[in-house]
Amino acid sequence: MRADLRLALLLTRGSDRREWWRVMLTAVGAAFATGLGFAAVAVASVEGQVSTSYFHGLLNQPGQRAGVVVTLLLLWVPVLGFLGQCARIGAVHRDRRLARLRLAGATPKQVRHIAALEAGLACLLGAVVAAVFSALLMVNLLQQRLPPAAWGGFALVTFAVPRLAVVVSVVALRRVVASPLGWVRRVRPGHGRVATLTLVVPAVLVGLAALLIVMRSTGPGATSFPLLVFSAVALTGAGSVAVAGITARAIGKRLAARTGNPAVLIAAERLRADPWATARTNAAVLLVAVVGVGFVGVRQIFLHSVHHPQEGLPHSPEDLAFYTTGANLAGAAVLIALLISVGGLAVGTAESLATRRRGLAAQAAAGVPQKVLGRALLLETALPLAPAMLLAGFGGAAVYFAYGWVVDAAAIPILVPLLVPVAVYAACLLAAATSLPLLRRSVHPAELRFA
Amino acid sequence: MSSTPMSSTPMSSTQKTVPVLAARGLTKTHGRTQALRGASVELRPGEILAVTGTSGSGKSTLLHCLAGIVRPDEGSVVYAEQRLDQLPEQRLSELRRTEFGVVFQFGQLIPELTALDNVALPLLLAGASRKDSHERAGEWLERFGVRGQEELRPGEMSGGQAQRVSLARALITGPKVVFADEPTGALDSLASEGVMAALAHTARESGTAVLLVTHDAQVAAYADREVELRDGVVVSGADAVVEMFR
Amino acid sequence: MVAMSTRHILLGLLAGGPSHGYDLKRRHDERFPQARPLAYGQVYTTLQRLVRDGLAEVDGTDSDGGPERTLYRSTDDGAKELVAWTGEITPPAPFVTNEIFAKVVCAILASADPARYLSTQRAAHMARMRELTAVKTAPGADLATVLSADYALNHLDADLRWMTTTAARLTTLTAEVDGA
C-alpha cells in the first residue's frame, strides 16, 4: 500500500497540465458535493421548532427543513454528473499509462490501487478544504451548538465523498486493469447492461416508494416522499440520456447521408459514431431543464395562488415573504444545478477537443478552415440538444400542468416556463463556445509534432 | 500499377528557370531548439523533390514553413509571386485547401468520416454539391486502387489503404504542390512501395510538384532529386552546391 | 551476384532442356535483369568444364540454317549437383570487402577530406537508387525485374545508412586512425 501510494504521488507529480486540470476540477466537484452534504447535515441536525432569522423563517419548521434537505441532496445529481465529466479528462492518456504499468509488471490489484488513490487524493483535497470552510460557515450561521450527531455527519460526508470517487474510478478502470495492452477506445462496448441497470434501479425505487406511501397510507411520508422524488428524477435523467443518445444517432445518420455542408457533415458523422458521449454530456443539462421548466411553472401557479387566495383572507405580508423566499430558494437551487451541469458540458467539450488535437491540427494544416471546425464543434452540441430540449420542455410542462390540475389553479402559465428550455439551450451553446479558444490552440502546428 | 505510359521526363536545364516554390535562408526556433538555421530550397514545376535527413534535422519544420503551416522566424518563402511568410492566416488556409495538398504520416483523415467523404471534403469545403464531390472522390479512390472501400472509415482500413485515401484527398483539388511528410512512416515496406509508386505516378501524370520529406532512402529514391538537411541547413544536393559558390 | 557460381546457374538453365551457348547467355541476361551480363566466352569455357566434370554432355548439333551450334544438356549428376547447390546456404557475408570504408580510412591517413568523399559517394548511391526505382516502377516491369532491383536497392540502402552513421562519427574515427 505504501509503495502504491508513492507511485500514485509520483505519477501525479510528473503528469502534464491536462492531468492537473482534471485534479483541480475533480477537487472542485468534490468540494461542491461536500459543501452540499454539510449543509444538508446541518439543516437536518436542527431539531423541533426553532426560530432563526434566515430565509424568513423557512428553516423553522421540521417539515420544511426536510424539503430543504431533499433539495440539497438532489443537487448531488448534477454535481456527480460534473465529477463524471471531470473523470473523463485525459482518460485515454490515463488508461494508456495504467496499461503500461501493467506491462511493466504491476498486478491488477496494484493498478487499481494506484488509480483509485489518484482520484481519491484529489477528492480528499477538495473535500477537506470544503469541509473546513463549510463547518466554519455552518457554526457561524446557525449560531448554536451543533449536536454531536451533526459532527458525526460532517465526518461521514468528508470521508464518503473521496470514497465514492474511488469506487467510481475503480469501476471506470475495470477494462484497463484486465488487459496490459490497454483498452482500444474506438471499439465501444455495448451499453446494454449499464443502460438497463440505470433504468431498472430507479424504476424499482420509484415503485418501492409508491408502495410504501400506499401501504402506510400516510400520504407523502417523511422517508418515502424524498425517495420517490429522488427516484423520479433519476428515472427522468436516465430517460433523457436514452432519448438524447437515440436522437443523436438518428440525427447523425440522417444528416450525414444528405448534407452538403462540411461542418454539418463532420458533426453528424461524429454524432453517429458515438451518440452516447453526447448523451452523457447532455444528460445533466436535460435533467435540469425538466426540473427547471417544472419548477418555473409550479412557482408561478403557487405564487399566484398565494397572492390571490381563492378562499379565506389574503396572506399577511410576513407569510407572503415566507412563501416567496421559499420559492426563490428552490429557484436558486435549480440555477446552481444548471450552472454545475453547464459547467460539466463545457468540460466535456473541452475534453473532446483535447483528445482530438493532433487530428484537428492535421485538418487545419490541410486547409480545413478553423471556422468549419469550430462550427462542427458547436453543431455537435446544438444538433442533438434541440429535440432533447424540446422533449425536456414537454416533460417539465407535464409536471406543472399536473400540479396545476391537482391544486385546481386559476391560470396555467405557458410563456415563461417555456422560455426556460430556450435559455438553457442558449447557455449550453455558450458553454460549448467557451472551447473555441481551446480549438484555436489545438490546431496549432506544434501539435503536429507529437504523434 | 496501371499501364498508362509515364509522362516523366527528367527536367531539362532550360525548364528549371522559375521554381514553383522557393525558400531562402529560413530560420525557425521551437522553444530552445533551433530547427532551421538558414535553410534554402527550390521546388521546380512538376518535380518530385525529396528532403532527407536524420530525425531532428528540421525536415518537418522545413515542410511546414514551405506549406505555409508555420511562419519562419527569418527568411522568405515565395509561391506564385507571393510571400507565404507574409500572407494572412486565412489566405494561407485557403491556399493549402486549393493549391496545395498535404499528406502526413497519419492523422489527416477524419476518423468519423467514410473514405469517400474524407476524399470529398476539400470539394465540399469549396462549395461543391455532395453528389458531384462524391462522384469525383470515387474516381480518385479508383485511381489510387481503393475502389470498394468507399464506406469504410479510417479505423477499418489498413495503413496502406488509409494512406492511399489520404493521397486521393490531397490530389483531388488538382493542387500545384503536394507536401508529403513521411507518408509511408507507419507502413511496412510492401505497403510503402505501393503508396510511393501511386504518389509518384499520379504526380508525374498530372504535373504536380511534390515535396517529399522522409528519412528513408528507398522512399527518397522515388524522387527526381534529393536534398539533405543536417542541423537545420541543406548540406547536399544541387542547391547546396549553389549555396557553396555564392 | 558477382561472386556467384556461373556453373550452377548454367546447370539451372539447362534443367529446362537442352540449349546451346548463345541461347544460355540470352536467357541468363533476361532472367537476371540487374546482374552483370554473361560474356559469351565465359559461357563457353564453363560449359566445357561442366562436360569435363560429367555434369553436362553434348546433346548434338543444330544448324538451323545458320552456323552450326553445339547443344548441351544436363546429366543426372548435374541435376543432383544443382539440387544440392540450391539447398546449400549461402555464407552470410563471409568477408567484409568494403571499398567505401577502405577509402575513408585511407583518406584519413592521407589527410584528405573523408567527409566530402562520403558526401559525394552518398549522392552517387542516391542517383543509382533513383535509377533502379525508375526501372522497377516503369510500366510493364516484370516481377523478376522488380525483385532484382529491390535486392540492389536494399543493399544500396544499407550502404547509405552505414555512410550516414560513419559520417556522424568521423571525428572519433580520425582520432583513432591517427592515434594508432
Protein chain pair with the most extensive contact, residues per chain: A-B, 30 and 38 residues
CATH T-level fold name of the largest domain in chain C = Arc Repressor Mutant, subunit A
Strand content of chain A: under 5%
Kindly provide the radius of gyration of chain C, computed on alpha-carbon positions and rounded to a whole number of angstroms.
22 Å
**Mean pLDDT over the residues of chain A:** 77
Question: The biggest beta sheet of chain C, please?
Answer: 3 strands, antiparallel
Helix content of chain A: over 70%
Indicate the multimeric state. Answer: heterotrimer
Q: Structural class from helices and strands of chain A?
A: mainly alpha
Weakly predicted, low-confidence segments of chain C: none
Shape of chain A: globular
Number of domains of chain A: 2
Number of helices of chain A: 17
Q: How would a textbook summarize the main sheet of chain A?
A: none
**H/E element sequence of chain A:** HHHHHHHHHHHHHHHHH
What does this molecule look like?
- By secondary structure, chain A is mostly helical.
- Chain A folds into two domains: 1-187, no CATH class; 193-451, no CATH class.
- Chain A contains 17 helices and no strands.
- Chain B contains eight helices and ten strands.
- In chain B, helix 4 packs across helix 5 and helix 5 packs parallel to helix 6.
- Chain C folds into two domains: 6-87, Winged helix-like DNA-binding domain superfamily/Winged helix DNA-binding domain (Arc Repressor Mutant, subunit A); 99-179.
- Chain C has a three-stranded antiparallel sheet with strand order 1-3-2.
- Classes of the chains: A mainly alpha (451), B alpha/beta (246), C mainly alpha (180).
- The A-B interface holds A 186, 258-262, 265-266, 269-270, 272-273, 358-359, 361-370, 372, 445-446, 448-449, 451 and B 30, 60, 64, 67, 69-70, 90, 93-98, 100-102, 104-108, 110-114, 117, 121-122, 124-125, 128-130, 153, 155, 169-170.
